[in-house]
Amino acid sequence: MATLAVMQMPPATPPPNAPFRPEELTGRLELALSAARESGQLTLGYFTRSDLAVELKADDSPVTIADRRAEELLRARISAKFPDDAILGEEFPERPGTSGFRWILDPIDGTKSFIHGVPLYGTLVAVEFQRRSVVGVIGMPALDESVYAAVGHGAWHVRGGGAAVRARVSQSSRLAESLFCTSDDTHWRGCGRQAVLERLQGAAQLSRTWGDCYGYLLVATGRAELMVDPAMSVWDAAALQPVLEEAGGTFTNWRGEPTIHSGEGIATNGKILSEVLSLVGG
């Protein structure tokens, strides 16, 4: 991934009565950016390798040595800089903390894509405070593209070696004019929500399974208007909320509540959220 520069962002303007100092977010965002970049580079060393061994976890999801080594790297960088912060990751047990901040990590979001040599996998790094995600980095190592945000800082988009530019959602106001993305239609059948998928596909101008975190990056940068997952873990969701919200969009559960803890997710440009919720709940 390209070098990401926090100094291109304006001074932080955290919400009124925020229970943390602006510099507490800035320092953690700087580390999230550098650690995500380093971890992403590590995964590229395993990407498209024909000898990559794949194991199945207890839930039958795949995992590789790249997942584990990338998360180990992230944990080491965080522990060295913020030893009092908690850490939750997909591949290893949670480490408790005392600072009130918790890092939430998904070293390879889209392991199935990674295994098959598809470049639409990402590295997700988030920081949570009081059950709300306040820092998020979505890095796409194989695409050399990233989007990142912290509360009050705005969302920023980097491609290749270019400068960071503001990430903004699209202005489309109707689902009929929108691109709808999702990860995998088999998840919808498994959750008993196939009818919802069909309603959304029927209402959208275009639908594609550009899934995992890539679909959310597309919404945050104005190239898609809607990304929905019927089932997701907290490490899938945590980095997304601040990025979508700071880009002017929304990240909610299926009831329209802004949370990363519901086991599901809807990302929109904000303008079509009401229409989407009426179809999801219909």
Describe the structure using short key phrases.
282 residues, alpha+beta, Fructose-1,6-Bisphosphatase, Chain A, domain 1, D-Maltodextrin-Binding Protein, domain 2, 2 domains, seven-stranded mixed β-sheet, five-stranded mixed β-sheet
Please characterize this protein's 3D structure.
The chain is globular. The model is unreliable at about 1-5 (pLDDT under 50). A hairpin with a 2-residue loop joins strand 5 (about 120-130) and strand 6. It has helices at about 20-45, 65-80, 110-115, 185-190, 195-205, 215-220, 235, 240-245, 275-280, and strands at about 55, 60-65, 85-90, 100-110, 120-130, 130-140, 145-150, 155-160, 165, 180, 205-210, 225-230, 250, 265-270. It has about 280 residues and is of the alpha+beta class. The protein has nine helices and 14 strands. Helix 1 packs antiparallel against helix 2 (about 65-80) and helix 6 (about 215-220) runs parallel beside helix 8. It starts with about 20 loop residues before the first helix and ends with a helix. It has two domains: about 5-165, Fructose-1,6-Bisphosphatase, subunit A, domain 1 (Fructose-1,6-Bisphosphatase, Chain A, domain 1), CATH 3.30.540.10; about 175-280, D-Maltodextrin-Binding Protein, domain 2. The strands form three sheets. Strands 3-4-5-6-7-8-9 form a seven-stranded mixed β-sheet, sandwiched between helices. It has a five-stranded mixed β-sheet with strand order 11-10-12-14-13.
